[in-house]
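dumping this here before i forget
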Amino acid sequence: MRKRHTVRGLFIPLLATAFLLAGQLPAAASYQSTSDAAIYPLAICRDGISFLFLADYYPAGTGDPSEEHPSYRVQSVQAATPVPPSDDNGRIFPPADTLVLDTTLKVPYAPQQLDLATFDPPPLFPRYPPHITLSWPYPQPVGLQDVTYAGGPYTLRWDRKLKAGPRSVVLSFDRFDPTAYSAEIIADVDKCRLFDD
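structure:
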């Protein structure tokens, strides 16, 4: 009997870890890479989203310091609800009439080193820490990174109020482009409010 409990005691944590790595369980807030860009969610509310953003990052010391960069990066941000099923490759392509956010940001050129192991800003609403998953297990940056573009917090309003609940909105930083090598972000929507009106 004791051996069975030992195996079960090891199997359950390993299974949970596998699901988390596969993007099937919600992760607490951290930078989540979806392509050559990553976001750090600060709040995902019924009326909008707030997040930090970085792009063009590499493990420290591996980038090309002589490369020239524009003074800002134009970054698309789209979101849709409800979240449709993913395809066989884990990609999500919502119908255009379900978009609740369709905008672009200018993210400044801000070269810096960022240690993802220690970077941990608090959520805007401690009662509602953001929970997100990736549509498929896109490789994630770890440790010290040389970052080219960084900005935020960006606080964006949905086109309409969303229902609070798990897996209620899907975000894309590549315009839900089926040809892009990227992942979508599936997020819980919390009963918080970012805007006064």
